[in-house]
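Job type: complex structure
Entries:
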Amino acid sequence: MAADRWIDVGRVEDIPQRGARTVVIEGGEEIAVFRTGDDAVFALVNRCPHRGGPLSQGIVHGHSVACPLHNWTIALETGQAQGHDSGCTPTIPVRLEDGRILIAPPLLISA
Ligand code: FES
C-alpha cells in the first residue's frame, strides 16, 4: 500500500511564514509547498492555471497565493482561481507529523 510512502519534505519551520519551497516528485512534477502566516501548510502543483506561472514565487496572503506572472489569485486549499478568473491547479494532500511536512505519494496524486 502506498500510504507508507508519503514524502517527507522537511520541517514546517524550514519554510518561512508566507513562503514556499518546491520539491520535485517521481515523474518530474514540481510541487510547491506553502506555509501561511497562521502556520497552515498546503501543497499544489507549481503551475498556475493561467499560463503555468511558478506559484511558489508568488505572494502568499491569507490562504491564497498571487501568481507572480499576471497576479491571478489562487486559493491554496482548492487550487481554484479566484474572482473573475477560472481554472484550477491540482492540490496535493498534506499531513503534518511531529512538525514535519508529508505530502501524498505520487500514486495518490491525480493531475
Ligand atoms: S501565469 Fe499565473 S497569472 Fe498568468
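Summary: The pocket of FE2/S2 (inorganic) cluster is lined by residues 48, 50-53, 67, 69-70, 72 (CB under 6 Å). DSSP finds no helices and ten strands in the chain.
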